Amino acid sequence: MLGVGYGYWTLTYAIAFLTRSMLSNSGSLSEVVMGGSSAGGGSAGLTSCARVLIRGGADEGTGEVLSARVVAERAGWCAALAQEMTAGLLAGHWNPEDVRALASGLDAAGRALPTQAWMALRRLGWGAAPPEGVHVNDRVARMAQEQAGRLLRSAAWRDALTAGVLAAWPQGDPAKRSPAEWDAVRAAVPGGERMPSPVIRSRTRQVQAFEKGHGRLPADVFELERPPGAGALLLLSACDKQEAVIERYATEPGRALLRVKLPSRPDPRSHRDWSWVRALLVLPPTVPPGAALHLPALRIVKGKLRAEVPFTRAVPPARRSGHQVALGVDWGISTLLSAGAAVLGPDGTITAGGAGAQFRAAGVLAKLGRLRRQGEWLHAKIGHCERLGGGNPGHPLAGKTAVLRAEAERVASRRSNLNDALAWSAARWTVDQAIAAGASVIYLEDFRSLEARSMGKTLNTRLSQSVRGKIAVRTRYLAAKEGIAVVTVPPRGTSRNCPACLAALRHRKAPDRPGEAGWKWAACPGCGWQGDRDHGAWMRIAARGLAHQDKTVTDRESGAMAVGAVDEAIEARAVAAPYASPGDRSKTGPTPRRKKKSRPAPRDPLPGQATWPGRPASGGARQHGPGPAAPRSGPGPRRDHDQHPQPAQAPGTRGGTRRRVPPRRPRHPAAWDGPQPGTHVR
Length: 682
Ligand SMILES: [Zn+2]
Fold this sequence. Notes:
Number of strands: 23
Structural class: alpha+beta
Number of helices: 15
Strand content: 15-25%
Low-confidence stretches: 1-41, 451-461, 614-657, 669-682
Oligomer: single chain
Radius of gyration: 30 Å
Largest sheet: 9 strands, mixed
Mean pLDDT: 78
Bound molecules: zinc ion
């Protein structure tokens, strides 16, 4: 009920606002200016997308106020027309010749094709015809061509990938390629060296399924896949002022006005059936006031009209080299990420800037594992019911199957939401570590070459490659806002060699955790360095990155920076001296007693505000809260050996004896209002 009331309030407010600005038509135009300024000198532009729900609008021709449902319906009619035209284009050009002609980037006369998809299609002479007897603006045809062009261009990549996978089809079981066969398939696929392995694996499975059904391998992707489906969306970015305009209110930078020409009936007969509709966009606070807005894509999701508004903001440019302070990030084994800063001195020596920190998400990873098992169990049960039912919709098990399907869908979306939240949280943590250390670059271990190694298997059981890809993408995005470069470095030997002298390390059980499984601790027989193996790995990555920074290359298409290969001569210099405390910490007498710090006593909540946020009576149980937003970061207070990293401790396990534990309080808010029947209140 509350939600409905709020939505209604927003809608009425939006309509009142629209009507007011619509009535004073000339006045409203003067207070509206084009949003944002262009990116200034010495700065780069970062484009992101904000989703805005359209809660209503107004017809400029009749002056009628339109509800959200009506605006969505009218946009839906226009989208359906564009969709039909797109589907026609896709069906007509879904063949190797046309897709390769578009992908070649050259027209018949050898001139370069325009980058905008609709312009490229026009140059090739691929027109989009509206349905019989329907009048559409040329801009609607442009939107159809834009969508078809984008889909056909992305198909060119799948075409090349399929051709590569087919050319290097393994002799034995395609699901179990040997390292040599992996090298062969990566060489056959364009950009295969750096391609995530799940992409090649899923394409292999697709080809296998075709082979099972047809008894032979497919010739190309056009045999393997049907033409891509056209979506019901309006790509307004392909239009000009005759179809759509977006403007930001100068007085209120959080609001923008979208004007778009929409049909007033599903089958518009003439230009009189098209009219301008204006809608107010309330921008989310993530859109900064100075950002330039671009024409959005309109999409209908569950009967509601959503605008996906791209915006460009000016960000400080990220440098490729010339870095002094770097953050090294390692994909850990039991911890998700280990990171720490390294400093490049004026004489070329590299020193670790501290003991580093770890991002642990054991709770979330366990939850993800439980959800995965639950999903597998549900799918097994669905398969069983289907076999028993034999595909008969009247079978008594059909209802049960539908319930199981809905449940499996919910489990899948819960997993995907949790993966998303985990990726954002890990990326935010990484960039915050870099900001705190004053680093201008983040060196990230390139996880894509972990393929076909035991390391990959171990990590795979905990976290899928796609989540790690998401963390990398989001780290790049968040770092770009701060002008911090993100560079991937080859992971070879990062946990095998000593960060201080590059000798081979010996792995053993951690001295403080003798009961724990695995070989978490690394010790150098050469120089005596020892520490957590993840700790050594981030030191190695940071040192490798700083030493190789002049070898950093930028990918022309994606703009991603990477150190391509390890240079042995440079690598010999990529040693990081462990962090040493500047003062002499050797003992000369008894340790002085530390002054007890007084902590303010917890205040009683105000009456009616009974929020005592679920504080546990003893420490330790705190980390089991829901959601991934509880990374344990930072080393605990260090007391002894500086070169020994101290993994983050659960609050309360260390120094917990000095901490004043607040008295136990009733948690239920009702208990604050006075004595309840049957409740004992002290
Ligand atoms: Zn060593």
